[in-house]
Amino acid sequence: MSSDKSTIDTSKPGGGTPAEEVPPATVAAIDPRLLVREQGFKGYITEFQRKLKGGELGSLPVIVGLIIIWTIFQVKDSLFLSSSNMVNISFFLSGTGMIAAGLVFVLLLGEIDLSVASVSGLSSALFAIFATTHGINPWLAALMTLAIGAGIGAVHGFFFAKIGVPAFVVTLAGNLGWNGLMLWLLGSTGSLSIADTGPLHILGQRSFFMNQSIAGAYVLATVGVAALLLGSLVDQTRRRRANVPYRPTSEIVLRTVALAVVAYVAAFVLNKSSGVPNALVIFLVALVICDFVLRRTTFGRKVFAVGGSIEAARRAGISVAAVRISVFAIAGFFSSLGGLFLAAQTYTATLQAGQGNLLMLAIAAAVIGGTSLFGGRGNVWSALLGMLVIQSIQTGLDLLNMNQSIQYMITGAVLLAAVVIDSVARRTQKASGRA
């Protein structure tokens, strides 16, 4: 018998079949928390190098891109990083960002929803009709509008998951149909004014957290930093008791300090003008909730499972149809919510709501922020990062009095770059056996 342990003699009696080589066992991936705990600072370098070689770039490209964009515009116009301009960016990114956050759920399945812009426009019209034409309480009107948005998304999901119509076709039909319904509802007047009351007053451009109190921004920064620290410590304790790799205390402190620097600098800059817009606060709260749902709940794990492999998800006992329907319902809900955000910018519902490049910007925000078009990879914070890039480009070019055509071309180029990076990263992960 051969002493080579990598071969097994499978010769049959009377046969001359040679021994077959057994494929070498796959090397188990080292948990980065364990690596850091054993190697200290060197472990961070090793893990970073491994991620780069494996195509796991995360949010690094968009953060680097955002720094470059801000640097260029600040050099061109010193007003770009002024507090008033930062307030404008943080306010105007929220509406489209809400729509992009809902799209992230759909993209995680490897699908697309082309109806989100039309649903947002229809929602603004419905809210105006409920609150203005019929005199319904604005808060009840908002709840009714959001429920209708979620219902529309569920209908799309039903045709996709149960009937088998491709999501592209279903939502393209929805894009046309819901836009036509909005035009029909507003056809006689062309627009409806909305009173500066209720939810739209809270979301409006003149509404700031804690009524422009200088403490408001710092309160938000403190809450965010404390939440990260507390959550990290709880997770560390839970993992330590379960005797599984956990994030070392040094890394928790480092992450907390990094967030504190960003949060308090942002608070300082925004406070020099008007403070933190309510729209941004609600947008961030929505992202925190969505992030918790995706990363900490069974439903979130099911979404990633279906996006990663439908057949594997089915064999694991996951109801693929239920996940698909619920995801499209979430996208419809956030589209409707985004429509209310956008309506609060002008206090009107017009025929132009949901038109133009809103759909493309929402999709671009999610993809530029790091959510993969191929499904199974991404997070809701990509909606914030992507909208920061897009809104920064739009605002910077406005300051430079550039034509809107230039904005479209630059945004398109950034979107293409994001998709190329995503595609290359995916191929690298496959080559390294991590996809």
Give the topology, please:
Layout: E1 7-8, E2 20-21, H1 32-39, H2 41-53, H3 60-76, H4 83-108, H5 116-133, H6 138-163, H7 167-186, E3 191-193, H8 198-203, H9 214-241, H10 249-271, H11 278-296, H12 298-308, H13 310-315, H14 320-346, E4 348-350, H15 358-368, H16 381-399, H17 404-431
Antiparallel strand pairs: 1-2, 3-4
What is the N-to-C succession of helices and strands? EEHHHHHHHEHHHHHHHEHHH
Assembly classification: single chain
Range of strand content = under 5%
Which percent bin holds the helix content? over 70%
Categorize the overall geometry. globular
Query: Which structural class best describes the helix and strand composition?
Result: mainly alpha
Beta strands, count:
4
Subcellular location: Cell membrane
Main location: membrane
Pfam family, one: BPD_transp_2
Function: Part of the binding-protein-dependent transport system for D-xylose. Probably responsible for the translocation of the substrate across the membrane.
Account of the 3D structure:
It is a multi-pass membrane protein. The chain is mainly α. 70% of the residues lie in helices and 2% in strands. The chain contains 17 helices and four strands. The strands form two sheets. Strands 1-2 form a two-stranded antiparallel ribbon. It has a two-stranded antiparallel ribbon with strand order 3-4. Helix 4 crosses helix 15.
